[in-house]
Structure formats: structure tokens, C-alpha cells
């Protein structure tokens, strides 16, 4: 690839998914970049792995179906040479139509690639410097658990306090502790070879579980933390408080599954997804929680087949922070108060692993362009990338983080038949991405 261009280095604060994507795009442009990563000297409450790109919540990157908005976003990232997608494809574990990974192998692969690049330097030190040297450009990809010092600096710079919401982790149990006679392997509607362990509930078993969940006192939030939960990742006990049907139509829905013991659909189901390729660890899907550890043991051991479950990781609760993007960022995701600083990932107001990587990739593309004096770019709104970033564009009204979804895409022409709307959106996204790649004279990272 030759030697780096003679530019001031790009400073990237944070070595998560967004930071790594931003760095990878910089390297593709032959722009040297320094990644400031505070681990292992300083871990956030949710982090424990010293590698880059650590997955702290689920190990699933959600649907791989390009007819789904997040699946389409994955397709676009692959076309853009995403380091996250390449590592995920190399380290995936069976999960039906979802793309799930062995989280340790995934992070290790990305760390290896980043540290092997001649353009990238990883400095294991906390940074809260939002005033890069003259001529330098910075990308803040510190994630929703940014350090207190950096959060304070962002608050000062934006002139308003960050908003906050809670995020939660689901428990992980060991396979050897499960009663496999009570569980069955299957994907919904019989698709695939059966990647999920399913715990079927009879009605009386579900009611016993539901009542126990209701009884247990949740771990109270701290007085200074306002519990604004992200609707796409509600704690299981918060869902239960909204009613039984929220569970049986949500994470415990039994549709598309048949209990081989009874030959019929269960009343409710808890699904477990493998955490690693060897299948020694399993995640209780959708059971993110803020319950204390003792309460988790009492309640979750009421799940059929989990009476003797050994917890490799308990569910946990932590606060996520993000900027009110439409008020403090320009259309290129730069801070209005300091245009030399780009924001990337969840802290900018996107939600989800894939979305964070995507937003980081675009921030890295534009940061590298800023270093080289090239025009900045915005992906077309018709693409999944553009639709996602469009959610962050300046506007009035309330704001909260969002996953990518087709509701963010522009409406098709009014004459489009309803039955063809979805196909039109997917086809138009692919067409516009092709044009965008030509427009930016795409550089593929090698």
C-alpha cells in the first residue's frame, strides 16, 4: 500500500465498533490515525475485555436478510469494505437468520487487523481532548459509556447536558448446567438446522415465572440517573410490568415453534442463543435485566430446563449517554461548536452494533476527506446508510436514538403499488449506493 500520506494524523477517541470503522476508512485513504483507547487502564462498568471492538451487550448483529433494514445495512457495509462485517463473517456462530458472533474471537480479529495496519497506532490511554492541534481532525467514538471527563467536555462544548437512557445486558448460562431433556433445538418455522435452544412453557409454568418476576424488587436506579429506557432493549421486568402479553408477544413469543414432546405450540418460549462456536455458553435472548443477582437466580431458574443454571454472566444495567444530534451536529456529523470534531457511533444518537459501525464508517470517510482537503459526502437518503444518518440531521422536536428501519427511508413514488413498496425501497437503495460509490471514487481498504 505504500507509506502514509504526509498529513497530520487523525485522532480517534475510542476503540469500539465505530472507532475501528473510522480508523479503517482513514487507513483506506492512506491517512495515518491514532486510536485513543482507555482500556485496559480504565474499564467502563460494562467492559471487561482489553481488545478493541468489544461487544458488551448481545453477541448478535441481528438479521442478515437484505429484505430487512438492518440486513440491507449489512450488505451496504460489506460493499464499503467494513472491518466489522469482515470480522463478523469470519467469527460467526449459528443463529438462524441472524448474524451472531463469538464475541472474543470477533474482538481479537479486529484488534489484530487494526494493530497490523501501517497507518494506524493504538495508544492505550484515556483522552478527553476535544481541541486537536492546528490542522488536525478528531473523531469522537467513545460510545455511550464515555468517560466522565470526556462527557463533561462534551457538555461544555455543546452547551447542553447530554441526554441519557438505560441499557441492559442479558444473562449468559453454561450449557453443561442446562437440563437438555427439557429444551429443544429449533429455529422459528423450521428454518435452518436449529440454532436456538428453546425452553417451552405450559401456561401454569409461565404464570409462576411471571408472578415471580413481578415480585422481585428491581435494582433501583441511582438518584441522579433518570431511567429513560430504550424501547428496543427494555429490561425483562419492565416489559413484565406492562402486562403478560408484552412478554408472550415479545421475547417469549411461541409463534413458529412446536414442542416435540407435546407436538403443539407452547404457551410461551424462552430462547437461548449460543455465545461461542463450541456452544459452551448460551445467552437468554431478550432477558436483559436490572434485577439483582440473587433475584436473577431465583427467577430465571424457573425457566424450564434452567433449574440448575450456572451463570457465566449475570444480567446488568448501565447508563448510556448520547448527544441530541439534531441540535448539536451538522449534516456531516461534526460538532457545530467545533467543526474539526466528528462524532461517531452510539454517542451521536444511533442505536445498535451495526448502526454504530455504519455511522463510524461514514465519519471516518469524511474525517479522512477533511484531512486531505476533499469535499465531504452524505450517503443518499434512499440507502440504509443515508436513512440512518438522516435521523440525526438538524431539525426541531424531540429526539431519541434509533435503530435503522424502513420507517426512516423516503417514501416511494405515490403511484407505487402497496405490494411493491418494499421491493422498490430495496432496489432503490442498491441503485443509489452504486452511484454513491462512484461519486466518492471509492477506496477499498486493503
List the helices and strands and how they pair.
Blueprint (H helix, E strand, L loop, with lengths): L9 E4 L3 H12 L4 E4 L23 E4 L5 H11 L3 H8 L1 E2 L4 E4 L1 H14 L3 E4 L14 E3 L7 H11 L4 E7 L2 E3 L9 E2 L10 E6 L1 H13 L20 H6 L2 H5 L19 E7 L6 E4 L8 H8 L10 E3 L2 E7 L2 H4 L5 E2 L2 E6 L9 H20 L11 H7 L30 H19 L7
Parallel strand pairs: 1-2, 1-7, 2-6, 7-17
Antiparallel strand pairs: 3-5, 4-5, 8-15, 9-13, 9-14, 10-11, 11-12, 12-13, 16-17
Helix pairs in contact: 1-11, 2-11, 3-4
Give the structure's gist in a few sentences.
By secondary structure, the protein is α+β, with helices and mostly antiparallel strands. It contains 13 helices and 17 strands.
What does this structure look like?
This protein is α+β, with helices and mostly antiparallel strands and 446 residues long. It has two domains: 10-162 and 323-439, FAD/NAD(P)-binding domain (3-Layer(bba) Sandwich); 168-319, Elongation Factor Tu (Ef-tu), domain 3 (Beta Barrel). It is 31% helix and 16% strand. It has 13 helices and 17 strands. It has helices at 17-28, 69-79, 83-90, 103-116, 148-158, 203-215, 236-241, 244-248, 293-300, 325-328, 353-372, 384-390, 421-439; strands spanning 10-13, 33-36, 60-63, 92-93, 98-101, 120-123, 138-140, 163-169, 172-174, 184-185, 196-201, 268-274, 281-284, 311-313, 316-322, 334-335, 338-343. The strands form four sheets. Strands 6-2-1-7-17-16 form a six-stranded mixed sheet. It has a six-stranded antiparallel sheet with strand order 10-11-12-13-9-14. A three-stranded antiparallel sheet has the order 3-5-4. A hairpin with a 6-residue loop joins strand 12 and strand 13. Helix 1 packs parallel to helix 11 (353-372), helix 2 packs parallel to helix 11 and helix 3 (83-90) crosses helix 4.
Amino acid at each position: 500500500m505504500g507509506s502514509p500520506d504526509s498529513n497530520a494524523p487523525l485522532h480517534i477517541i475510542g476503540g469500539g465498533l465505530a472507532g475501528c470503522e473510522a480508523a479503517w476508512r482513514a487507513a483506506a485513504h492512506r491517512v495515518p490515525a491514532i486510536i485513543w483507547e482507555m482500556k485496559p487502564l480504565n474499564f467502563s462498568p460494562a467492559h471487561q475485555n482489553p481488545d478493541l471492538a468489544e461487544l458488551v451487550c448481545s453477541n448478535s448483529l441481528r438479521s442478515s436478510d437484505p429484505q430487512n433494514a438492518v440486513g440491507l445495512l449489512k450488505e451496504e457495509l460489506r460493499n464499503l469494505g467494513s472491518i466489522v462485517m469482515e470480522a463478523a463473517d469470519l467469527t460467526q456462530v449459528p443463529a438462524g437468520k441472524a448474524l451472531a458472533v463469538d464475541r472474543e474471537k470477533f474482538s481479537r480479529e479486529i484488534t489484530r487487523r487494526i494493530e497490523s495496519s501501517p497507518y494506524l497506532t493504538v495508544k492505550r490511554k484515556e483522552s478527553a481532548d476535544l481541541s486537536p492541534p492546528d490542522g488536525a481532525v478528531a473523531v469522537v467514538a467513545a460510545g455511550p459509556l464515555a468517560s466522565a471527563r470526556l462527557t463533561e467536555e462534551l457538555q461544555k462544548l455543546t452547551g447542553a447536558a447530554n441526554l441519557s437512557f438505560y441499557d441492559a445486558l442479558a444473562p449468559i448460562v453454561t450449557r453443561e448446567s442446562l437440563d437438555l431433556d427439557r429444551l429443544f433445538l429449533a429455529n422459528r418455522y423450521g428454518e435452518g438446522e436449529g440454532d436456538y435452544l428453546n425452553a417451552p412453557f405450559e401456561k401454569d409454568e409461565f404464570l409462576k415465572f411471571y408472578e415471580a418476576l413481578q415480585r422481585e424488587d428491581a435494582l433501583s436506579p441511582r438518584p441522579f440517573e433518570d431511567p429513560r429506557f430504550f424501547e428496543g432493549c427494555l429490561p425483562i421486568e419492565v416489559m413484565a410490568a406492562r402486562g403478560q402479553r408484552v412478554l408472550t408477544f415479545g421475547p417469549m413469543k411461541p409463534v413458529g415453534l412446536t414442542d416435540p414432546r407435546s407436538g403443539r405450540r407452547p404457551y410461551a418460549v424462552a430462547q437461548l442463543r449460543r455465545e461461542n462456536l463450541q456452544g459452551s455458553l448460551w445467552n437468554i435472548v431478550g432477558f436483559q435485566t436490572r434485577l439483582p443477582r440473587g433475584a436473577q437466580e431465583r427467577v430465571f431458574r424457573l425457566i424450564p430446563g434452567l433449574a440448575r443454571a450456572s451463570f457465566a454472566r449475570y444480567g446488568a444495567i448501565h447508563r448510556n449517554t448520547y448527544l441530541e444530534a439534531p441540535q448539536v451536529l451538522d449534516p456531516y456529523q461534526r460538532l457545530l461548536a467545533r467543526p474539526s470534531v466528528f462524532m461517531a457511533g452510539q454517542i451521536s444518537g444511533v442505536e445498535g452494533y451495526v448502526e454504530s459501525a455504519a455511522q463510524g464508517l461514514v465519519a471516518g470517510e469524511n474525517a479522512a476527506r477533511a484531512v486531505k482537503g476533499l469535499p465531504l459526502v452524505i450517503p443518499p437518503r434512499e440507502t440504509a446508510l443515508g436513512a440512518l444518518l438522516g435521523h440525526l440531521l438538524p431539525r426541531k422536536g424531540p429526539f431519541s436514538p434509533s435503530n435503522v428501519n424502513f420507517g426512516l427511508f423516503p417514501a416511494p413514488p405515490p403511484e407505487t403499488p402497496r405490494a411493491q413498496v418494499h421491493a422498490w425501497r430495496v432496489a432503490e437503495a442498491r441503485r443509489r449506493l452504486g452511484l454513491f460509490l462512484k461519486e466518492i471514487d471509492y477506496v477499498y481498504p486493503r
